[in-house]
Amino acid sequence: MILIGLGSNRAGAWGDPESTVKEAVNVLAKTSGTRILRQSGLYLTAGVGPGRPEAFVNAVVALECHCAPEALLRRLKMIERAAGPRSARRWGPRPLDLDIIDYRGRIMGRRAHDQLNATALRNRISLPHPLMHVRPFVLAPLNEIAPDWRHPLLKITARQLWDRMRGERSGRVLKRL
Predict the structure, then answer these.
(1) For the chain, how many structural domains are there in total?
(2) pLDDT tens per residue, range 58-109
(3) Residue 164 is part of a domain; what is its CATH number?
């Protein structure tokens, strides 16, 4: 099983953030060699990053895909570009952000003891996603569709991660849409 996080906080080619996330799921479902296994509901969440980032619409999908992680990441980046241009600012507003949260439990991108370091290497794939375990906007929808999924490094479930982070202010869930 492969887990993909979806987020949007700016209108783009596919409409408002809610419509954009829904269309991104449709595009993923229609992508050759990809099959959606489960998808979460949509969540309105607080933005993360410097300044006062706008609220996001977030979701998580579980899928199967027969391509390598790097090929999947390239596909995700193509889908992001189709949704509209991204802000030049790091953590700036964007029509669509797609992240590989987990790829069949694979650990890659840097040594395991560095994996949970918040300073991820840029332009390289890192699995599992190096910050997913501290992001309520990922953990709430993940807990909805795969509560028994285990973090490959921390060895604890999505439910346990969500229980730890549900009170966190940064990236908190504002409501389920």
Answers:
(1) 1
(2) 999 999 999 999 999 999 999 999 999 876 666 678 899 999 999 999 998 8
(3) 3.30.70.560
